[in-house]
Amino acid sequence: MNKQPIIQFSDVSFQYQNQDAATLQHINLAIQKGEKVFITGPSGSGKSTLGNLINGVIPEEFSGRLTGRVTISGQPKSKLDLTDLSFVVGTVLQDPDAQFVGLTVAEDIAFALENDAKPDDVLHQKVAKWAQRLNLTTLLKKHPQDLSGGQKQRVSLAGVLVDDEPILLLDEPLANLDPAAGRDSMKLLNWLAAQQDLTVIIIDHRIEEVLQIPIDRMIVLADGRVVADETPDHILKQDLLLKHGLREPLYVTALKNAGVNVKQINHLSNLETLKLSQINRDRLVQWAAQQDNLVKKSSRLPIISLKKLTFGYPSEPTIFKDFSLTINQGEMVALVGKNGTGKTTLINLITGFLTPAGGRLYLGKNDASGDSVKQRADRIGYVLQDPNQMISKTMIYDEVALGLELRGIDSETTKKRVFETLKITGLYPYRNWPISALSFGQKKRVTIAAALVLRPEILILDEPTAGQDLAHYSQMMAFLEKLNRQRDTTVIMVTHDMNLMMAYADRTIVLDQGQILADASPAEVLTNSAVIEKAHLSQLSLQVLAKKAGLADPIGFAEKFISAERRHLDDESANLV
Amino acid sequence: MNQQISYDVGKSQENRWVTRLTGMTKILVLLSLSIIGMVSYDTWYLIVLTVFAVLFYQSAHLKWHQVRGLLYAIAAFTALNLILVYLFNPAYGSQVYGSSHILIGRGFFALTWEELFYLLNMLLKYVFIVPLILAFLFTTNPSELAAGMSRIGFPYKISYAVELSLRYIPDVIRDFKQISLAQQARGLEMSKKAGLWNRLKRSTQILIPLVFSSMDKIEITTRAMKLRRFGTKQRRTWYMTQKLGKIDYLVLVSTGLLIAVGIGLFWVDGGRFYNPFK
Amino acid sequence: MKSGKRTKGLSVEAVVATGVGIAIVFLLKRFLPIPTGVPNTTIDLGEAFIAFLGSVFGPAVGALVAFFAHLFNDLSWGDPWWTWIVADAIFGFFIGFSQRFLKLKTTPLTKKKLFQFNLLQVIANVICWGIIAPLGDILVYSQPAGKVFLQGITATVTDILSVGIVGTLLISAYAKTQTQKKRLTKD
Q: Nearest CA of chain A to the CA of C109: how many Å?
C-alpha cells in the first residue's frame, strides 16, 4: 500500500471533441512520489495533452472523450476538477509572461493565496518565505518587464510553490531562456525537488538540456503512445529518440557514430561522471581523423556596414557608442548574447525601426542611413520571433502577396512571384488554406515567405527555430541554408541555440552591453571560456566529450561531428520538404 | 506612443504625504470630488475645491517638465470648449441666471456679465480637479489601485481586470510597436499625408495582428489564472491592502466635510447655481 | 464535466478579456486618434476595438472595457468627463449584444449578420453619442444644447465610421480563424 503511485494512468485514451483520431492511445504509466520524470516527444505526440490531463486543463478547457482510469494522489481524476487538482499539482506554463499576472513580483507570488482569501499576515509571510528561498527578495517590487527570463521563471515557480503542492508540472521550462539561464533553472529545480520532496514532471523536447540534472525516468511519447518508459541511461543506449524525430544529446550521437558500444557505458546520461575506456577514446580519435575538415567560406563583399553608430533609448544610458560592424554578402551570421544586451536593438537599427543618434549605415555601397523602413525592407527581410505579430491576413496567399501589393506590383507578376515563393518555402500545397489552420512552424514559414517574396538580399531572423522539434528544425534550417547557398542570400540569425550556431553559422557575433565581445567562427567563440561566461553562452557537450577522449582539439572535433551530422540531416529533410 | 509609461513613483515624491495616501483614499477622494464638482455650480464652492486640489499638487512637488505637456493640452481643450459654448449660445448665461447685464457688444454676440460669470464657472468645472489628478498620476503605485477598488466595494473580479490592464499596458505598447514596424517593413506607408481612407486601412492592418496576438494572450492567461484558482471563491484578499494612516483619515474626513458642504449648498442656493445677480 | 466551483459574476476569461481590452483600448484612444481632416475631429479606433471585444465576449466585457478605458484616457489628460464615460460604457454594453446573433466562435459569419451588426452599431452610436452624452452634458454640466449636440453628432459620425469600417474588418478577420469545419486538403 505504501508504494501506491502518486499519479497513475491505466489504459487511458483521449480524443478531442473536434478531432477525428485519439490524441492519446492506451497510455499506461505510474509516477511514484518524489520521482523526477521527464516526458518528451516530437510535436503532435500528445505530450502537452498528457500534461493537461494531469493538471485538469482537460476537461476544464478542452472537452473530449476520456477512457481508462487516471488516479492522482490516490483519488480518481473524475472526482477532481481543475481547482482541486491545483492543490496537488502546481503548473508552470511555457510562457513566463502569460503566467505572470501580478503587477509586481510580490503580487504575483501571492496570487494563488489571494484567490484562496488567505489573511494578510499569511500572504506577507508566505511571500517573504518563498522570495527568500528562490532568491527574489530584492526583486519583490519589480514589474515583469524589468525582469530577465530566468528571473521570471523563478517568480512562476514561487507563485505555484506557495501552495506546497506535492507535484510540480513544468511545460517547456527551457523555452525563452539563454543557455546559462536554462542551466541555472534546471539546477534550481533539482535543488527544490530535494528540498521540498517534490515529484517533478518536466515536459519538453530539449533532451540534452533537461538531462543536465539527474532524471529518474524518461517517458517518450510518439503518435499518442508511450514508446519508452525507462531511465534516461536505458533510453540513450537505444536509437529510439532519433527514430522518433527527437534530438538525443549530441555527445551520445557522437559516441554512437564513432562506433563506441554505448550499451557498456555506465551513467551515459550524465556527461560529467561519464568515463571512457582507452578503447573508446581511441575510437573517437580515429573517427575524428577520418572526417574531412570543414570548408570555410571566404569572405566577400560587404553588404551591411555600420559605421560609428551611436544609439540610446530616450532617458536611458547610451547602448551603442561609435559601434562599427561589417557583414559580408553570403554570410550566415549568428548574433548571440544574453537577454537584454542589445541584439534586438541592433537589428532594429539595421532595419530602420530605430533611428541612431549618429553614425551611418551602408547597404552594399549605398549610404542607406536616410532610407525609410519600407525602402530598407526591399533589401532586408526581417522575421520576428512570434509569427502572430506579423500576420495580418487570413489566407496564406494574401499574406505572402501583401508586400507586393503594397508596392503596387501588378497582379499577374504578383501571382507569379507568390507562387514561386510558396514553392521554395514548401507552402505551395497549402496556398488556399486559412493561416489559422497552420502549425506554429508553418506560420513562421509563411512570415519568411512574406519577406522572401520581395527578394531581399539579406534575411534577418529572430530565433528561427524556437518551439520546433528536430524534424521541423532541420527542415527550417535546411531551407535557410539552401537560400544562402543558391541565392547567396545573407542570413543573420539571433539565437540562444549553441548547436544551431555551431551547425549553421559561418560567423558568430557575440554582443554584450552594446559592445562586440567576440566576432569569430562559432568554434572559436565556443572555446573561449571568458566569452562563454560573460555572454551567458554554454559549451557544447561535444567539447566536453572530446576532452574526455583526450583529443587535442575539442572544438575541431565538435565541428567535424556537426558538419557530418548536418549532411546527414540535410539529406533526410531534403526528402521531407 | 513615444511617451514612456513609468510605473515608479519618482524619487522626489517618495516622502510626500500625498504619496503616503493609500490607493483606497485616493480613489475615494478622486471619485467624490469629481462628482460633486460635476454637479455643483456654486462658484465659491468650486474655488474651495480648486484650492483643496492644489494642496495635493503642492505636496507632490512635481517638476514643470513633468506636467508641462499636459497643462498645455488641458488649456487648449478648455479654451476650445469655452469658445464653443459662447459661440453657440452667447445668451446662455442670461438664461441660467435670469438677468442680463451687457458688458460689451450688441445683438447676438453681446457679452453679458452673466455669460462671463457662467464661463468662469465652466472654466472652474473643467480645471478644478486637474491639480489633484496630476498629483495622483505621479505619486500613486498602480499596485494599490485594485486593492483599493476592491476595498471600497467594487467586485473583486472587476478590480482585478483593472489590475490586469495596468499589467498589460507596457506589453501592449511593445507589441504594438513591433507589429507596426513589421507592417512598415512589408511596405505599409505611414506618412502623415495619407488620406482618411488609407489611414483607416493601414490601422486595420496593424490592429488585426494585435487582435490575433491578444486573443492568444487572453486564452493562455485565462488558463494560468485558473490554474492558480482565480475566481473560485466569493471573496479575495489582496497582498497590497494597506493600513490607513493618520493622513488618510485626515484627508478622508476633510473630503467628507467638503462633500457635505457641497450638498448643503444646494439648499442654501436653492439649486445647483450660486447667483450673484439676484 | 464543468467545474463546480463557479462563482457569480464574470468568468475568468471575461476578466482577462476585460483587462487586456482596457489596456488596448486605452492606448488606442490615448495615442492613435486618426485625424479626419476636420479640425479637432478625430476617429477613435478604440471604439472599433470595444465593438470587437463586445462582439466576442458580450455586453459586460464591452461595457467594462469602454468605461475604464475612457476613464483612464480622461485621467491621463487630467480631467474625467463623467457623462461621456458613462455614454461610452452604455455603447459597449449595447454593442455587446451582437455576441448573441454573431456567435463568432461557433457559426460562420454571413453578410446578413454583418448587416445586423452594423445596424446595431449605428443605433447604439446614435443613442449613446447623439442622445445620452449630450443630454447628460445639458442636465449634469448645464451646457448649452447647440454646443453639446454638435459635439455629440460629430462623435456619432466618427464612431459609426470607426466601428463600421475597422470594427467590421476586425470581426470578419477573427471569424475566419474560428470556423473551419470543412476539411482542408493539400493541392
A: 14
For residue A410, pLDDT beyond 70 = yes
Q: Give the pLDDT band of residue C1 (cuts 50, 70, 90).
A: very low
**CA-to-CA distance for B27 and A115, rounded, in angstroms?**
23
Q: Give the pLDDT confidence score for residue B12 in this predicted structure.
A: 67
Q: Is the ipTM of this complex over 0.85?
A: yes
Nearest-neighbour CA in chain B from C83: distance (Å):
9
Which chains are adjacent to chain C, needing at least 3 Cβ pairs under 8 Å? A, B
pLDDT per residue as tens digits for the range A115-125: 999 999 999 99
Q: Is residue B4 part of a domain?
A: no
- State how far residue A576 is from chain B, nearest Cα, in angstroms: 29
Partners of residue B273 in chain C, C-beta under 8 Å: 142
Name A7's bridge partners: A31, A72
Between A387-396, B188-197, C66-75, the lowest mean confidence (pLDDT) is in B188-197
Q: Does residue B262 share a domain with residue B216?
A: no
Instruction: Domain ranges for chain C, please list them.
Output: 13-177
Fold of C13-177: Arp2/3 complex 21 kDa subunit ARPC3 (1.10.1760)
**Contact (CB<8Å) A59/C173:** no
Quick one: what percent of chain A has pLDDT higher than 70?
A: 97
Q: How many domains, chain B?
A: 2
Distance (Å, whole) CA A448 – CA A446? 5
Picking from B178, C184, C100, the residue whose alpha carbon sits closest to that of residue A436 is C184
Domain A302-540 has CATH 3.40.50.300: yes
Asked if domains A7-248 and A302-540 share a fold, the reply is yes
- Which residue of B221, B227, B232 to mutate against A (max A Cβ within 10 Å)? B227
With H, G, I as helix, E, B as strand and everything else as coil, classify residue A499: helix
Best B168, B198, B212, B266 member to test C by mutation, with max C CBs in 10 Å, is: B168
Using the structure block, give the residue that is written with the C-alpha cell 502572430.
Answer: A388
- Strands A320-328 and A302-311 turn out to be antiparallel
pLDDT in tens, A37-56: 999 998 888 898 999 999 99
At position A258, the amino acid (one-letter code) is A
Put simply, the answer to whether A98 touches B217 (Cβ < 8 Å) is yes
Assign B4 a pLDDT band (cuts: 50, 70, 90). Answer: very low
What is the chain C residue with the closest CA to B133?
C78
Structural domain boundaries, residue B205: 155-227
- Using a CB-CB cut-off of 8 Å, the residues of chain B touching A403 are 186-187
pLDDT of residue B154: 94
B249 and B202: one domain?
A: no
C window 133-162, beta carbon within 8 A of B = 140-147, 150-151, 161
Which among C1, C5, C187 has the least Cβ separation from residue A429? C187
Instruction: Tell me what the mean pLDDT of segment B223-232 comes to.
Output: 93
Which of B183, B184, B233 lies nearest to residue A115, judging by beta carbons?
A: B233
Rg (CA), chain B: 24
- DSSP-assigned beta bridge partners for residue A228: A220
pLDDT tens-digit series, residues A171-183: 988 887 888 888 8
| A7-248: in CATH 3.40.50.300 | yes
Instruction: Taking residues A275-292, report their average pLDDT.
Output: 87
Identify the weakest region by mean pLDDT among A529-538, C5-14, C82-91, C172-181.
Answer: C172-181
Residues of chain C contacting A59 with CB distance shorter than 8 Å: 1
The residue extents of the domains of chain A are 7-248, 249-290+541-577, 302-540
Q: Which chains touch A (3 or more CB pairs under 8 A)?
A: B, C
Of C97 and A174, the structure prediction assigns the larger pLDDT to C97
CA–CA dist B170, B196 (Å, integer)? 28
List all chains that touch chain B, counting a touch as 3 or more CB pairs closer than 8 Å: A, C
Other beta carbons within 10 angstroms of residue B229's beta carbon come to 23
CA of C23: how far to CAs of A50, B142, B176, C50, in Å? 34, 14, 11, 11
Percent of residues, chain B, with pLDDT higher than 90: 46
CA distance B25 to B31: 10
